[in-house]
Specification:
membrane, 3-stranded antiparallel beta sheet, 2 domains, transmembrane helix, GPR180/TMEM145 transmembrane domain-containing protein, GPR180/TMEM145, 225 residues, 5 helices, alpha+beta
Length: 225
């Protein structure tokens, strides 16, 4: 989907060695089941022949600007060869001219990079709070399975935010990102949610942070004496 204010662009790099191929830009509503190749060519907003009548391998580098009339519409790029098998190698990119903050993001995803960067900064800012809470519970000797699961959940969630932010930054630069980092980030998010669910389940069954008696070497015991 393109926005009128973004002046979207379609960049196609295609290598063909046989005649009859066409590069089409059609409205997504025209991609109905059973639609014939000829009907798609007829309904296409852009029809660009990709090869001349020759036996040579020809490479095409096309850059098409999206018309303002396509504001809010979904478009599809198609390589067609009506009545014959398609034999082409291609790379097609939809992007927004501008800085890397917006270039590779669709209209619905604009601002996503800023959101994840802000979230990662928030995670880093809250890190001292988490460390202080951990030390406080450790000093009071009240750590148990519940607190361990909670802190592990928070730790995995923080790693998820940072890892996915790295993926988003790389995606903003090259349009593909880091698939392995994105997978690891999603897996960490799954672990964090599972652990948090277990913590909530344990609390619902009466497990909570407590201690049966005051440790002999604690400040509370010294004050009470």
């Amino acid at each position: 989907t393109f926005d009128q204010t973004s002046n979207g662009r379609i960049h196609s790099q295609t290598i063909v060695s046989t005649p009859g191929h066409k590069f089409l830009v059609v409205n997504a509503t025209d991609l109905v089941p059973g639609a014939s190749c000829e009907s798609l060519v007829k309904a296409a907003k852009v029809v660009e022949p990709l090869v001349e009548r020759s036996t040579e391998v020809i490479a095409y580098d096309l850059t098409l600007n999206v018309e303002p009339s396509l504001n809010g519409q979904q478009v599809a790029a198609i390589i067609a060869r009506c009545g014959q098998e398609i034999s082409a190698e291609y790379i097609i990119e939809f992007d927004n001219p501008g800085s890397w903050w917006v270039k590779h993001f669709s209209c619905g995803d604009l601002g996503l990079l800023q959101k994840w960067l802000s979230l990662s900064l928030l995670v880093v800012a809250l890190l001292p709070v988490g460390m202080y809470s951990w030390k406080t519970l450790e000093r009071r000797q009240v750590h148990n399975d519940l607190t361990a699961l909670f802190f592990m959940s928070a730790f995995f969630l923080a790693l998820h935010c940072i890892a996915f932010t790295v993926h988003m930054v790389v995606y903003a630069k090259n349009g593909t990102g880091l698939a392995m980092i994105a997978f690891v980030a999603q897996f960490l998010d799954l672990l964090a949610n599972c652990m948090l669910f277990i913590v909530m389940l344990m609390m619902a069954h009466g497990v909570y942070i407590t201690r049966s008696e005051i440790p002999q070497d604690s400040d509370e015991m010294s004050n009470s004496m």
